[in-house]
Amino acid sequence: MLFYSIEEILWMLAAAMMVDWIIGDPKWLPHPVILIGKVIKTIENRWYVQSKLRGVWLIVIVLSLSVILTSIIIFGFQFIHPWLGYIANVWLIAATIAIKGLKEAALLVYTPLKHGDLSDARKYVGYIVGRDTANLSEAEITRATVETVSENIVDAVISPLFYALMGAAPLAMLYRATNTLDSMVGYKNDKYEHYGWASARFDDVLNWIPARFTGLLIVVVSFLNKNFNGLRAWKTIQQFAHQHPSPNSGIPESAVAGALGVQLGGRNVYGGVTSERARMGVALRQLDRDDILHSILILNGVSVLCAGGILCGLFINYF
Description:
By secondary structure, the protein is mainly α. It has helices spanning about 5-20, 30-45, 50-80, 80-95, 100-115, 120-125, 140-185, 195-225, 230-240, 250-260, 290-319, and strands spanning about 265-270, 275. The chain has one domain. Strands 1-2 form a two-stranded antiparallel sheet. Helix 2 (about 30-45) packs across helix 7 (about 140-185).
């Protein structure tokens, strides 16, 4: 059986967070998200038509395969021994979380910036953003990194935990498959405007509650850390989040901008085409490369709050 008590799920979530914090995503271990990406690409190569209906069928097929295969893996291990079923759940849930990976990706950008190496910083920031990075200044590299960390607190932490809490690894993997679909085909361009429409919209739906919870957690972290401003983070969400083109990304981004007292958003270039993004926050000071470290502190703070919430849930369940 694949139904678990709340106590079992909380223990699995705690273990999965620990696995991600300590191990992350080792390159030698097969990663489910890579497999999901290959499935999406295979379907696209054989089936692509600029059609919203095809796009709907794409997410039905990919999400169904993700849930079914995840359930089969768990059931197979559980059939051998119940503890193996728990271990499979923990590994698969950990694969949907990326706290360590997000932190390391941001530090890869920060380290060359610290040593004045803009060339390497541009290269590494290009791994985590879709915009053109060849001519970015230090401030623009910093902004791109801080924006990525801010937005991905939802995708890499809160949403996977939220869906794992509701349905263990199968639902966490359903979320990760949706997020992967959005990152691969959910673009408003000539190729994916219709084919990727359903993927982008479904990702928005799944992130709606987690994004707002993330904003609240960032505000709490900002109140607890004297280096940040919790009240300003809250006010910045109220004032700026709705201006973001995404119904969800503007919340963590504006919260971090307010907490740090900087402005995020603005001019980006994609494929040589300039795009003006809504600006989040009031620039009380200029962005500095150390703001990358500050955004990582907020990421860690949110993660610790989540872990604390999980442990409190276990404590309450016992008493």
